[in-house]
Design brief:
Blueprint lengths: L10 H27 L3 H36 L3 H18 L2
Helix pairs in contact: 1-2, 2-3
Amino acid sequence: MANGERGVILAATRKEASKRLNRIEGQIKGIKKMVEEGRYCVDVLGQISAVHEALRGVGKLIMRNYLENCVTNALRSGKEKKAKETYTELMDVIHKYAK
């Protein structure tokens, strides 16, 4: 889709994503401190795993926004070209994030 036609992240989703990302930022700082202090590897790896899952949660939140708003609006627009572009974009997103 062209930039002017793209949907945006809804306000409620932005607020929730921002809250989660702030928490993740704190976790990252904590991991950095653990590494600098020479903490036990398994403890550091556990925190890295927690951050990874937290990021996946943010991704899921943004993906839901994308599907419920951007994709749905494009498909309901009645414009065949826009729908085809959206299907292509959606397949690219699925391929990229389903790894």
